[in-house]
Amino acid sequence: MNSPIHDPREAVGSVFSLDAMLHARAQTMDAVQRIAAVVQPGMTEQQACDAAKDILDGMGMQRIWHQIIVRFGENTLKTFKEKITPEQTLGSNDMFFIDLGVVWDGHEGDAGDSFSVGDDAEMAACAEAARVLWQQTGQYWHQHRPSGEELYRYAQTQAEAAGWKLNLDIKGHRVSDFPHAIYKAGSLGSFDACPNTGLWILEIQIAHPTRPFGAFYEDLLVAGEWPTRQASADVPAVTALTQHAF
């Protein structure tokens, strides 16, 4: 994972620093949690995005490199490319997710997480399943050095085994010192080599098989973290629908 970068799709700029990437990552995930704490039933997606912008400004962000995404309810099934629905309101028993792309000190942070409000057990399970599937897939990358293509085949198998639908229109992407887009790397799920550490965002978006909601989680793939991020060497099984009665 720490081998020199030779593939032009993994090129970085002269100011690139892995430490700076880790800082951007930490700041962005912190922002996701801060924003989630102020989201409440009755709020619209636009109001949540406005609150997110205020929080990011207060944290001293350099700039936003992709639009702020906050999705409520059935909109949690939408992809990044689809616009938010400004008037969509969060219900008292509902799902939402936050997806941020923020530049800190010239480096791109990209983080996303899902949350449920109220007492719907399947919604809570869906949010947790996205996080655990991300961890399971990330550990597979760490241990087996698969290509990006193989990584998403693995994620799909694990999601289906637990009863969730993996959205394969969302397959991860490059990040770097800003802007990564000049490197034309394509998606992580189309990358035919083992992705290097600190350069790729693993995105997981799942859907409930019968109800109109889903969950999203994304984070930076970083080598060397997995033994310390888990309580044991084995990642817990993906939260399965069979744990909750329909």
From TrEMBL:
SUPFAM superfamilies, per database record: Creatinase/aminopeptidase
Ranges of residues in domain Peptidase M24: 20-176
Alphabetical list of Pfam families matching this protein: Peptidase_M24
Protein name per UniProt: Metallopeptidase family M24
Organism listed in the record: Amantichitinum ursilacus
